[in-house]
Design goal:
Elements: H1 2-7, H2 19-44
C-alpha cells in the first residue's frame, strides 16, 4: 500500500495507535540490554550472578 501511495504521489498514512506502547517497549529493551551488558561485565570480572527462580512456589513454606 505504501508503494502504491508513493507512486501516486500521495503520502502514506501513518499508524500512530501504538506509538506510546512502542516507546515504552523500546525503553524496556534498552534497559534489558544495559542490564545484560552489566551482568556480562560482572561475570567477566570473576563475579557470580545469583540464580533467580523461574516462579515462586505457593506451596513452599
Amino acid at each position: 500500500m505504501a508503494k502504491a501511495a508513493k507512486a501516486a504521489g500521495m503520502e502514506a498514512p501513518t499508524d500512530t495507535r501504538l506509538e506510546g506502547d512502542r516507546e515504552v517497549l523500546l525503553q524496556q529493551l534498552r534497559a534489558e540490554r544495559t542490564q545484560a551488558a552489566a551482568d556480562a561485565q560482572f561475570v567477566a570480572d570473576g563475579g557470580v550472578l545469583p540464580v533467580k527462580p523461574l516462579f515462586d512456589d505457593p506451596f513452599k513454606r
